[in-house]
Amino acid sequence: MRNVKLLQSLGLPTQVEIRRRTITMASSTSSLFLLPLLLLLSHASASTVIFYNKCTYPVWPGIQASSGQPLLAGGGFKLSPKRAYTLQLPPLWSGRFWGRHGCSFDRSGRGHCATGDCGGSLLCNGAGGVPPATLAEITLGHDMDFYDVSLVDGYNLAMSIMPVKGTGKCTYAGCVSDLNRMCPVGLQVRSRDGKQVVACKSACSAFNSPRYCCTGLFGNPQSCKPTAYSKIFKVACPKAYSYAYDDPTSIATCSKANYVVTFCPHHGR
After folding, report:
1. Using omega within 30 degrees of 0 as the cis cutoff, is the peptide bond preceding 132 cis?
2. Are 252 and 169 in contact (CB under 8 A)?
3. How do the pLDDT tens digits run along the chain, 269 residues long?
4. Phi-psi label, residue 164: left if phi above 0, alpha if psi -120 to 50, beta otherwise
């Protein structure tokens, strides 16, 4: 009963369609079946990540492993509304996740996404998403994991990481606000018809200035301070990185946990 309440508090259904894929350094296997998330969370190892889409539209998660780390799930997949997808990560894995939206792919997996596109492919195959895109980053450690949600590359979707059954501080990380609605004009990315803001650039991407990118003379925490633009991001999303040296307030840690990565966490179930 406690686990059911936990799932409900996370905004997750107690039973959804799950595609479970076990990844190792040498091989991967997958199967498609229905399984209560309660059972999954009760028996999963500390390296299980569950992606859940609370958006009212499909999201195509992208996955990029850090250098030397194995590719997971081909680097991308489609996640329909109110669906979940699970991955078991290899020990000490690190990498980033993001959500693509407004995507259209043909049968060969070629196409395009309005935001977060990775070379026009359904399977990103190690490629990163084109900014602006909200990023979730995670590093699994021997004794402690590190994770965060970053707006350093801009914003396209609300996103969160929630640890489950871990020890330590294990705080929530994420951006639940719709930054597209409050994005300054100079940072806006609009739809093809110009009627809608579909993403919000970082000041670094928009202006390519060392002051905003924390490069050159501004390449250290002492000289690269919050700007008017990063402050807008921080006020809207206090639990996310707003710029490169926002570390003290934005990185979270946990031990022996599973993780739920949610797209549009502010939406109702």
Report:
1. yes
2. yes
3. 433 444 454 455 443 333 333 333 323 323 233 234 434 444 434 479 999 999 999 999 999 999 999 999 999 999 999 999 999 999 999 999 999 999 999 999 999 999 999 999 999 999 999 999 999 999 999 999 999 999 999 999 999 999 998 899 999 999 999 999 999 999 999 998 888 999 999 999 999 999 999 999 999 999 999 999 999 999 999 999 999 999 777 899 999 899 999 999 987 64
4. beta
CA 157 → CA 87, 106, 176, distances in Å? 21, 24, 9
| Closest by Cα among 203, 92, 198, 187 to 142 | 92
* Contacts (Cβ under 8 Å, ≥6 apart) of 47: 88, 89, 90, 91, 93, 140
Extents of the domains making up the chain: 2-180+238-263
Cα Rg of the chain (Å, integer): 18
Q: Topology of 2-180+238-263 in CATH? A: Thaumatin (2.60.110)
